[in-house]
Amino acid sequence: MNLCASILPFLFTLPALGSTAHEPELRLLKQDFARGIELTTGNKDAVQTLLLPEVVYMTLSDRNMRDLRVFNGAGEEVPHALRSLMDAKRIDHADVELPLFPLRAEPGGNAQIGDVSLQLKRSPEGRVIELKALAPTQQVDADRTAPVLAYLMDLGSLSRPVTALSLLLPSTQESFLVPYAVEASSDLATWSTLVAQASLASLDRDGARLERTRVSLPATSRPYLRLRWLDQPPPLPLERVRLELASESGVPARRLVERLGKQTESTPPTYTFESLGVLPVNRVQVELPDTNTLIQAALKTRDSEEAPWRTALDARYFRITNGVELSNDPHPIATHVAKFWALFVDPQGGGLGSGMPTLRLEYFPHQLAFVARGEGPFTLAFGKAQAPHSNFDWSTVTQMLTGEQRRALPEQSVTMGESFALAGSSAFVVHKEDRSLQQAALWAVLILGVAMLGGYCWKLFRKLPAPEIHK
After folding, report:
1. CB atoms within 10 A of CB 174
2. Do 364 and 255 contact (CB within 8 A), yes or no?
3. Phi, psi of 316 (to 5 degrees)
4. How far apart are CA 378 and CA 459, in angstroms?
């Protein structure tokens, strides 16, 4: 009986062992993946880095990017980790506002911006605290009714480059569309053009208010910025300008993917777009096929063709002509990963017409770091069904580096070749039959073992002498 008592706990553990025995840790080889890219290191640093190319996102099957590995020249897997540079470098898009200095024309005159001279007053730190514009014949700054030719901003107090501006006016129901240029200078005498023509607009179209207030800039660190009206100024003076700054350490350039829509037979009008892999999208734009088009539409996503649609953005899109062509600003969204995208258009207003929309998705690529163990060349292998997690995070891969070395890691230290086929499409085949047979065989062995042990215990129990009864 003692033998059975010692065996019974083991019997109860067999099912638990069986539930995990069919899921062993897989040792993946380079040839198990769909595609590869050769990585050539330019130095002997222990940790090498790269920015994931678009083909990787388009090939991966797992939205968490589990099916990605790095192998050395001997075919051995080396530790790797991924991170988002958007999070790591703390991009600051909070409102940054600076004083605006208007440059006015001579009252009743036709002065151009080149006719205006400047009189500056600076703080002890060198910042502009007062600016007066002087026309050829008289000082005009005192006349607040004189038209504004341009606005100046002193960027000298900023520690990071400016990458975008948003022009804000007091609330008004008046419609206007004003073209302007953005220029930069180091000495207030010589100006270079950053944006040749942008539009500040607020228009009423079929009861909807259409606005365009933002303009992206090539990052500039020059201390002075000028907004110059190319035609008549807007009906109200600028209230303030919001500046967007680059991150402290810089960020990789945004990447852009475009897909032409295909209309389905659904109601409301729906346009689907070719699979977009697992891109970490954070800004979207829909380019409308025809001018003078205004729509309200929901942009929806899903991870597979069988999954239900979920809404990523419900917004208004427009493309109109009013002297110049004008469209809505791109829409920022929280980072969104999905393979399939669709545009569901509200039928009110006539929809899109006969043309097809173009979906523009913008994203920042992930950075990959790997330990350069062994000889090269190294291979980035990617694309496989049901790949297990690599079990490494960024801090583990970079733990051999000092804090300063981690902060100084370059965006990319390797040279990447063209992608090439490894296992191809066979890497995405799931062998369900083989797995189910192995599982059935394992459970059969376990059940047989339980039956045999149970029978042995029953025989021992039958052989035990009957207990004596004492009166």
Report:
1. 11
2. yes
3. -105, 135
4. 62
Q: What is the pLDDT of residues 186-203, one digit of tens each?
A: 888 889 999 998 888 887
What is the architecture of the domain spanning 96-245?
A: Sandwich (2.60)
Give the Cα-Cα-Cα angle 78, 83, 88 (nearest 5 degrees): 140
For the chain, the structural domain boundaries read 2-23+446-463, 33-90+369-428, 96-245, 255-363
Nearest-angstrom CA–CA distance, 373 and 71: 9
Judge whether 338 and 312 are in contact, CB under 8 Å.
Answer: yes
pLDDT at 430 over 80: no
Domains 96-245 and 255-363 share a fold: yes
SS3 content of the chain, % helix, strand, coil (to 5): 20, 40, 40
SS3 221: coil
Q: 39-53, 115-129, 299-313, 350-364: which has the minimum mean pLDDT?
A: 115-129
Of 78-82, 107-111, 439-443, the range with the highest mean pLDDT is 78-82
Query: What pTM was computed for the model?
Result: 0.70
Beta bridge partners of 154: 224
β-partners of residue 362 are 256, 283
Query: In 3-state terms, what secondary structure has residue 440?
Result: helix
**CATH annotation of 255-363:** 2.60.120.260
Separation between Cα atoms, residue 78 and residue 392, nearest integer Å: 10
Q: Strand order of the sheet with strand 176-185?
A: 101-104, 148-154, 224-229, 176-185, 191-205, 208-212
Instruction: Please report which helix (H) or strand (E) contains residue 319, including its range.
Output: strand 310-322
Q: Using alpha carbons only, how large is the chain's radius of gyration in Å?
A: 33
The angle, 0 to 180 degrees and rounded to 10, between the axes of the packed helices 2-21 and 432-463 is: 180
Give the C-alpha distances (Å, rounded to integers) separating 171 from 168, 174, 330, 392.
9, 9, 22, 52
Residue 125: pLDDT band with limits 50, 70, 90: low
The model's confidence at residue 26, banded by pLDDT at 50, 70 and 90, is low
Phi-psi domain of 349 (left: phi exceeds 0; alpha: psi -120 through 50; beta: other): left
Q: Which residue has the tokens 């039928």?
A: 347
